[in-house]
Batch of 3 targets.
Target 1
Amino acid sequence: MEIGIDKIGFYAPHMYLDMNKLAVERNVEPEKFTIGIGQEKMAIAPITQDSVTLAANAALNILDEEDKEKIDFVLFGTETGIDHSKSGAVYVHRLLGINPNARAVEVKQACYGATAAIQMAKGHIALNPESKVLVLGSDIARYGLKTGGEATQGAGAVAMVISAEPRVMRFEGPSAFYSDDIMDFWRPVYSDKAMVDGKFSNEQYISFFTKVWKQYKEKAGLSLEDFEAICFHLPYTKMGKKALRAVIEEASQSVQERLMDNYQVSTEYNRNVGNIYTGSLYLSLLSLLEEKEDLADGSLIGLFSYGSGAVGEFFAGRLQPNYRDHLFTEKHDELFGTRKEISVEEYENMFEETLPSDGSSIELDIDADPAPICLSGIKEHSRQYVNKQRDVSTLSGGDSR
């Protein structure tokens, strides 16, 4: 049975910050951001967007009524969840009107969460071939103003429908994975900002990639020559390039050039959105699929997932016949084309605007947010979500009125 990605889409907030302008404001040479780490724009989430709404908006763009009926498992990968108990998947399940006879679960292991969800989805589909699984990777990356990690922030979500007989990509061959208990990046439960040992994290990312790549070659009997491209988890777009360089000399000159050229294409979306944690690898994949017009059916694509703390995995997928007919490129082009640039001052004010942490109620202005699904406030400790397309009035967390 072939199992893989039947649909894939993403959503990013409607505002962005130009990294050149942030660099000037921070008294940094702009090239440090645009070339050194490879970032052009940073998506900025208004207070009316959180990991739940970003995920729901990403899925809303790709699901039809048949999907909603056949989906019986919603898996939500995130490291910026909004509740210590209730999963983000449950909120998304209700906001989208998915079949009630479904499981809904949140998966956490830093940026690896969506990949773990995909592996769980594969097992579910193998046992239930008629089912579909909605996998979500949604996050808002926050390190703090004027911190070392500020330039690698971002916000967005990727949604994927995993099914049998997929139309975009089928997963192929074994996976190689590796775990180790390290402290390269983490976010304690009392903090809304991440903590990171940047140099150590970069070193571990490359180390994990070389370990799982070596293991994968032995398991699959494949080499770099067999891959048309390799997509990476991208906390910033230069990170994957550093890892690829660690193994690239295994290949001929022509293969090296092909992999590096295709790597550059795969970074286009990420360099204009920023770090979206669990969704970053799959945003990279989407960029490759939608931006490289001559990417042939049947191409084998490598995928490296890394979640700090740490878990790494390398696996692969093969593009299906006429896969391009099942992408949502026009919607994504429209999303990028309608975004609004904000100033550094506006960004700083928005960053400091946070939801109450003392149980207070609040009403938010969702009219200023063009997203179909928004956070409209907090009432009695419960986040209120609205799906504008269904003309639903403000709802309490799990209420289905």
Note: The chain has a mean pLDDT of 96.
Target 2
Amino acid sequence: MGGGAQRYIGVAERRARLALRQRLAGPARAGTPEEVAGSLVALHGTDPATVYLAVGARLTDPATTVTETGRALYEDRSLVRMHGMRHTVFVFPTDLTAVVHASTGLAVAARERAALLKHMATAGAPDAAWLKEVEESTLAALARRGQATAAELAQDEPRLREQFVYAAGKSYEGVHTVSTRLLRVLGVEGKVARGRPLGSWTSSQFRWAVAPEHPELDIAEAQAELLRRWLAVCGPATEADLKWWTGWRVTEVRRALAAIAAEAVTLDEGTGYVAGGDAEPVPTPDEPWAALLPGLDPTAMGWQQRDWYLTPELRPLLFDGSGNVGPSVWWNGRVVGGWARRSDGEIVWRILDAEGVGREARAAIEREAERLTGWVGTTKVTPRFRTPLEKELAAG
């Protein structure tokens, strides 16, 4: 993983890398959603609005955000929403789905199917052979329909409506429907993917579609490829960052680092890693830049150790209790505040860390707010995971 003296990469250079490679500085912005997703490796998809807001923040012409992102997701299928790292829903470039599935999905899929069979058996529900029949029938129905909701699929396969009691006698006892659990398992296994939503681009109710076919890859090779792509965008990163982002065991992280000949560098936190040949200095953006990024944005959530771009004192206001970041305001590579959209459509923001945030910065942030308002229009946008500052600003 590199020999000789380790080069030191300081905070200023890390912020410069972030600005350019995360498509946030003005000249680095992209022309299409595919370029954005390809540059970032993955867009958080747990909150559907995040995908569009993250893309719009990085497009040269944000007016095309909704139409072009919808085209990529649901017409060209050049982007796919699927489970990935840490069992989280992301949007990936379609050509990366095989890598994600092999590197992170297979292990999670095995656990999910085993858990479903265990819960069904405990509840006295039908066995694995029965579930296999339902699964095959469901996939055949989905192939015929192209896209469908769980309710529509249940018209073709009525057994999807059957229910079983989960955790009987426990405080968290509940009733699960076969369709809900089975489609989730099939999604993690890479057999189905989320299709077009029932409502607008902010809707969290999706149809299902047969997942794009992809080759089965060697797990270790897929992990090496995923790590190589991520380090090219987000490096340098510590081993702790890599383990957190991928959700892998530390042995898998180290194996992948060795496989791609990653180079060790020195960071303020200790040893970090960059992709092979990427340790040389990068230029600072010619102009200072501002950005309004959505909750769960991949830049704000990209590293576990965030002190180099986020003052720890800001976390209680900008994160929820589960560690999900809310809408954030950026100035020159660091988080300086947060923003929200009120019910009347106004974008409001607040500076929490005023160091270095003068008149130029505030004017640039206001321009970004106007830019965002321009393409979002009248659409109501409320983060799925609400944070203290966002709720306060939204309430007015």
Note: Residues 134 and 158 are 9 Å apart (CA to CA).
Target 3
Amino acid sequence: MMLTLTGAKAQIANEEGTMVSRVIPVEDFDLVIFGSTGDLARRKIFPGLYRRFIAGQFPQGAQIIGAARTQQDTAAFRDEMRKAIVEFAGNPGKDAAKVEEFLQRLTYVSVDARGTTGWEELHEHMREGVVHAFYFSVAPALFGDIAQRLSQYGMADDDSRIVVEKPFGRDLVSARELNATLARHFREDQIYRIDHYLGKETVQNLMAVRFANILFEPLWNAQYVDHVQITVAETVGVAGRGEYYDQSGAIRDMVQNHMMQLLCLTAMEPPYHFDPNAVRDEKLKVIRALEPLEPDDIVRGQYLAGPDGPGYVEDVEHPDSRTESFVALKVRISNWRWQGTPFYLRTGKRLRARTSEIVITFKDPPHSIFDDDGVSPANQLVIKLQPNEGMHLTMMIKEPGPGGMRLVQVPLDMSFADALGANGTDMPDAYERLIMDVIRGNQTLFMRGDEVEAAWAWTDPIISGWEQSTRSPEPYDAGSSGPEEALRLLHRDDRRWREIRP
């Protein structure tokens, strides 16, 4: 058996060579979840915390405090969280005894974010000498009020940390104002701007594949990479959140944050060390190197009604809406590594399949010695983020059997579930990992303030151009790959989108 200690996990190779993880507990903490009765808390935060609890990552005294406007006592709150864990925690949530043990860690305090109710009681629950973390699972309009009251009631000490959810502003001006508001009460190293995409196992493995292996990094540049595609496709529409989405659209909801982070991790230079600021410095350089987009580099779309549901304008109840539910972009990076290699980004609702992936397409060999007319499928590295996390590399080999040298393309697959001896329910959810990183004080997978502002500085002119234009988004059929115009975005470069599939 081989043991390798890496941060909070011990990686162990058993007798069969399968990698398994031994979880190391974090230090003692008090975690306050503002907005604890909301949908995100019920679906992700509390089920994720429960899974970390049964994994043995909680210290003995750790406590979680729910805080919201709802008037209820701790017993009623625990009842609600019991239902959430059973529904959303997967198989571990069926262990009634463990669920009850976890619920004993929970307390509830009713607080008014813009008033005085509940703050003194909340302060009384906070223990001295432990990590104090505050998760703002609330509307961004309340971030400043909560930060101010944490300071006013003596809970914003030197060791406290706050976690803020997206959207972090809706443009550069509002993002700067929000950064300034939080900075009045907390240092930058205390602010954790969470993007759950960065907590996905495959996203972190992207850095490992690039920087821990000599195989790929020498090829990871414009000399050998033809182009890069980043796709985040969803099968659902915007029903149920139409009012929010119609004010945001795909570029604010997905491109400015999630897809920008994936772009940065794919394109960035090697940091001098796997250190929070070193990693984020390199991501910031990528954003600042992005060229402004030309109108022909952008495609917007809106899904139409189909057999499975209404169209976008019906979902948002706004028949004249010009907000996009789909966007495709051709992005260029002006630096030595990537000059001349385009990055194609697309994301949309009501598409053919739910999938998120990064596809690195390498250039063809400069000369073919085989009788294949000089045409063969390019090597591709496909990094699957969801639903089935893993990677595969397509390569050309000889087709088995007699009859000459016939080439065939085959994948070298690495499914995390198979390779790491895990299954879908055993792999930590992104929120689980990120919340534990907050307790550890590790900001590597969180966005820095200047990074957020740089992303908005690049995105704002795109949005402004759309607002000044009279052109409406291109319609596309629900269940398709998006509007035809998005296909032509690559066709004119003699390239093709990778098919959207699970």
Note: The radius of gyration is 24 Å.
